[in-house]
Write a structure and sequence with these properties.
Layout lengths: L8 E3 L2 E4 L4 E5 L5 E4 L4 H12 L4 E2 L1 H9 L6 H15 L9 E4 L3 E4 L3 E3 L76 E3 L6 E7 L5 E7 L5 E7 L5 E7 L2 E2 L3 E2 L5 E8 L3 E9 L6 E9 L10 E2 L5 E6 L8 E6 L6 E2 L10 E6 L5 E8 L3 E8 L4 E8 L8 E3 L4 E7 L2 E6 L5 E6 L4 E6 L5 E17 L9 E6 L4 E5 L8 E5 L6 E5 L5 E3 L9 E6 L6 E5 L2 E5 L6 E2 L7 E6 L5 E8 L2 E8 L5 E5 L2 E6 L5 E6 L5 E5 L5 E3 L12 E3 L3 E7 L5 E7 L5 E4 L11 E2 L5 E17 L1
Antiparallel strand pairs: 1-2, 1-8, 2-3, 3-4, 5-7, 6-7, 9-55, 10-11, 11-12, 12-13, 14-16, 15-16, 16-17, 17-18, 19-20, 20-21, 21-22, 23-24, 24-25, 25-26, 27-28, 28-29, 29-30, 31-32, 32-33, 32-55, 34-35, 35-36, 36-37, 38-39, 39-40, 40-41, 42-43, 43-44, 44-45, 46-47, 47-48, 48-49, 50-51, 51-52, ...
Helix pairs in contact: 1-2, 1-3
Length: 723
């Protein structure tokens, strides 16, 4: 049967109130100005559209889930759709709410957002329940609570918004105010290592009594372990040793067991319970609690203080992103807690407050930055605390008796935000790169510090086009260098992101040894991707939620508009335009910017990826509706369906050349495979480079003779404690 939303939502221009099962409009003064006049059947249909927003809904689904039968005529379905459109003020020719997909069904396209604001209807819209003495309850005013206004750390004031305007939607909740962080007088503190193994030690979890530390260890061969360290004796005990991906452990409140996720990509995903012996020296049992999606990303778990629930991330089947799930330990149905917008990778790193009535978690914004959110478990309402500019912390936690949230603000500073006042303060500065931070029951601050990986680039012959063996090391990163984009030809520069001068900047490395800085950032940045122009002289970079162009001797050029959420920039074949995905009302669309006059226009509303070949003869695009990839030929207008598996939250990396396109895919064993689609033969072939353990950012020479393959060497990360 049809579903009903369980919490207050912002649906386009309307509010949905679950207590009254109504859609209402509220003006800027908090007054209800309209109520959608729907009968019971139409309201059920409306609810079904809301909980399935963004998804194609067939007529058969509507019949089965709303009517509960399958023998209702299409005319009755059309009547309900017509009633809904009239009530919502929608137009079938230019829909803002219900879109008709010819011969397939319908899709609810209006943004649907969880809101922290609370609307209470006056008694005129509530069916009163008599009090014990038979008296009618006092009428309640309409109250809309909005988050406090804030200002970005390095940014100017942004315009204030009305209480019920678009500030309640996900994609414009950028109008907040972060108290400027005054680092003068902020203490400097050092992290002292608690672990010191070779490889990566991550995801620290201190036992409730403070005597043991559980953590994940990844060695140079990518073998993963869950290790328990006795903090008094320093004894190490390997609890789990596997080639699968393992999430962090979450201690059960009694300190006798742990929960963790084991993910074998493409095969299985399990939330598991690891029970220890009474002396905590060996594993008594390791059992499956529940299954999760094979496309999930492993992330932090959290166990409720009463031991009754576990919150874990999951990527449900047919879902575009990761959500937070609540697993009832003592029996019951697994519950989905959050619904991130389609433009978000999802929600991660949830942590219970000590009282167990709230969760703090991280929400991705278009893959470029993070937001810190609160979830009230009693009311099932959410509130965004802060939008982090150019920052994507690995974890957040509760601090100062659950009155604040602690997080890494920059690689060298730890900050807190007060959950009531929204005031941000720098807690301390450090000389370590703190990738994630957590707080133990004893208020000990732990972090993961060090360097995650080193990158090398190898020049290899493309075995499909060049049989002459070639294996040449052309780049090896130093401790200050993080990412590189190989030049298009041997006589052109490569681009490197380096913090040799303090903050991260872009440098051009020329074949003759010259190195030129082309950017001048004044604060920390988070680079997502970069690509050279067709002539190889200008660099296009996606930095946080901004798109920039850098060139030697030219002032850096910002292409995206303030407040835009963007991703996936690419050049037109002539270098005049830049294409990118832009989030509008919770959906991706393709836009382009003219680099000559910076004018911006919409290219396609039904696509979320677009790249043009260097010669302009074809484009590769991805449909928003079903994540299917197409190749569009310019000469004859032919559209070719590409056999690319697009499940999960990570997009393939594409390299387009004149005769073929190349893309990366992750195999079940987590290794990278590069595939080539030949435009003439329409054949798909794997580029056999042996066993590839690499990042996704490979490159191909313009003549397709060589492949530039990045290979990662695991760096050194330790668990450390702040002193």
């Amino acid at each position: 049967m049809s579903s009903k939303p369980e919490q207050q939502l912002k649906v386009g221009d309307w509010w949905y109130l679950p207590e009254q099962d109504k859609l209402v409009k509220v003006d800027a003064f908090g007054e209800v100005t309209a109520t959608a006049d729907l009968d019971n059947l139409c309201q059920k249909a409306m609810n079904y559209f809301i909980v399935n927003a963004g998804r194609l809904i067939t007529r058969d689904e509507i019949l089965a889930d709303v009517w509960g039968v399958r023998d209702v005529s299409d005319g009755r379905i059309s009547r309900v759709i017509r009633v809904l459109r009239v009530a919502l003020g929608d137009d079938s020719r230019e829909p803002r709410y219900i879109e008709t997909i010819p011969k397939r069904g319908f899709r609810f396209i209006a943004p649907v957002a969880e809101v922290a604001s609370i609307v209470t209807l006056p008694d005129s819209l509530i069916e009163p329940e008599p009090a014990d003495n038979g008296a009618t309850p006092e009428p309640q005013p309409v109250i809309v609570k909005t988050g406090s206004k804030r200002v970005g750390r390095w940014y100017h004031w942004v315009a204030m918004i009305s209480m019920l305007g678009c500030g309640l939607l996900y994609l414009v909740w950028q109008q907040f105010y972060v108290q400027e962080q005054n680092v003068a007088g902020v203490p400097f503190k050092r992290f002292q290592p608690v672990t010191s193994l070779k490889g990566l030690e991550v995801h620290a979890a201190m036992s409730p009594d403070g005597n043991y530390l559980a953590f994940n260890h990844i060695d140079a061969q990518s073998q993963q372990q869950i290790i328990l360290k006795n903090l008094e004796s320093s004894e190490l005990k390997v609890l789990v040793d596997d080639t699968a991906n393992l999430s962090n452990v979450a201690w059960r409140p009694d300190g006798k067991a742990m929960a963790y996720i084991k993910l074998t990509r493409g095969h299985s995903c399990e939330l598991r319970l690891l029970t220890l012996s009474s002396d905590l020296k060996k594993v008594a049992s390791d059992e499956v609690l529940t299954k999760c999606s094979n496309n999930s990303l492993v992330g932090r778990l959290s166990w409720s203080p009463d031991g009754a629930s576990i919150v874990f991330p999951n990527n449900p089947e047919n879902s575009p992103n990761t959500v937070l799930m609540l697993y009832p330990v003592f029996g019951g149905k697994v519950e989905q807690l959050t619904t991130p917008p389609p433009t978000s990778v999802g929600d991660f790193a949830a942590r219970f407050a000590k009282k167990g009535n709230q969760l703090v978690f991280l929400r991705d914004v278009g893959g470029g930055s993070g937001q810190i959110w609160l979830l009230d478990l009693d009311k099932r309402t959410t509130e965004m605390l802060i939008q982090l500019e150019n920052n994507y912390p690995g974890n957040v936690d509760w601090y100062d008796h659950d009155t604040k949230i602690i997080y890494p603000a920059t690689p060298n500073s730890i900050s807190t935000i007060d959950i009531k006042t929204k005031k941000v303060e720098t807690l301390f500065q450090t000389d370590n790169d703190a990738l994630e931070v957590s707080v133990s029951t004893q208020n000990r601050i732990l972090a993961t510090v060090g360097q995650f990986r080193l990158v090398t680039f190898m020049k290899l012959n493309n075995q499909l086009t060049n049989p002459k063996p070639t294996k040449e090391l052309i780049f090896e990163s130093s401790r200050s260098e993080r990412m590189i984009q190989i030049g298009l030809r041997d006589d052109l520069p490569s681009a490197v992101l380096s913090n040799r001068s303090g903050l991260f900047q872009f440098w051009f490395h020329y074949p003759d040894g010259r190195q030129v800085q082309v950017s001048d950032f004044k604060n920390w940045i988070m680079l997502r991707e970069m690509v050279f122009s067709p002539d190889g002289k200008r660099l296009l970079a996606s930095v946080g939620n901004e798109i920039w162009i850098f060139a030697v001797g030219e002032k850096p050029l910002l292409l995206s508009n303030q407040g835009q959420t963007v991703r996936g920039p690419s050049w037109s074949h002539d270098g005049r335009f830049v294409y990118f995905s832009s989030a509008v009302q919770g959906r991706w669309q393709i836009s382009k910017t003219d680099t000559k006059n910076l004018s911006q226009s919409v290219v396609a509303l039904d696509l979320d990826y677009y790249q043009e070949s260097p010669n302009g003869e074809y484009q590769v695009v991805r449909r928003s509706l079903d994540a299917g990839y197409e190749l569009h030929l310019r000469a004859n207008g032919e559209v070719i369906e590409l056999p690319i598996d697009s499940k999960g939250v990570l997009l393939p990396h594409f390299v387009l050349r004149e005769k073929a396109l190349y893309y990366s895919t992750i195999l079940d064993n987590n290794q990278l495979e590069i595939r080539r689609f030949d435009l003439a033969s329409r054949q798909l072939t794997a580029v056999d480079q042996g066993s590839i353990n690499s990042t996704r950012r490979f490159s191909v020479s313009l003549d397709e003779q060589y492949i530039y393959l990045p290979s990662t060497t695991i760096g050194n990360l330790d668990i450390a404690e702040m002193h």
